[in-house]
Amino acid sequence: MNIIDKSRIRSKFASAIATYDTQAIAQKAVNSRLIEIIKEYGRTQFNSVLELGCGTGDFSVRLVESCSANKWVFNDLIADIEDIIRGKLPLVDFKFLCGDSEFLEFNDRFDLIASASTVQWFENLEVFLINLNDHLNNNGLLLISTYLPDNLKEIQTQTSLSLNYLSEEKILNALRNRYELLYYEPLKVQLEFDSGRDMLNHLRETGVNAVSDRSFSLSDTRKLIKRYEEASALPNGKFSLTYSAFLFLAKKL
Q1: Residue limits of the Methyltransferase domain (predicted)?
Q2: How many domains does the chain have?
Q3: DSSP states along 42-108
């Protein structure tokens, strides 16, 4: 497993800002399903909402379109994200907090804390989920997606590069003592690429390559592409990359 350097995450995602919206197909599928989950639960009116790790704002826009709130707060590790969010939500009065979501100090409590495809980068997700309870109002909700140990399995089988993803069981155990678990589901999103090089470009252009600071030589890259294509070939001539997400909705006890 790979230890994540938050400064590397900031750098990789900052470099991917211009391409993220086009390439983040799997992440957008996760965002869409999270919104379906909160709608299905039937609670979409809140006094205050916080989104952690808002990135380029696809999930932010979906939240604002689907939920109403008197107070919106968006957070991200990258300061330049604020201008992007303000451009996508010009009519929304919100506060932007720049900083590491895992260790951000909140002065307020919220009715909904939401986060999509962010918390898998945290050093200790179990402790974070437990402590997040203190920043929710009574009956406050968590709406979160992360990723499971078999995420990007086609890459994991060819390299040792992976985050220390929590299992479904460990995530649920972290929630049980402080939350009522309202709903959860695993979600797999399989992408298809014309080549291994296209797959590597996808990882770079979404910032997912922040998983490692390892530099690959040209020879190493060619070998990786060859092994990846051999392991992930599909009957249609394309090559697969599978995101394995875990989504949940929980309520503060």
Answers
A1: 49-140
A2: 1
A3: T--EEEEEEEES-TTSHHHHHHHHH-EEEEEEEEES-TTHHHHHHHH-TT--EEEEES-GGGPPPSS
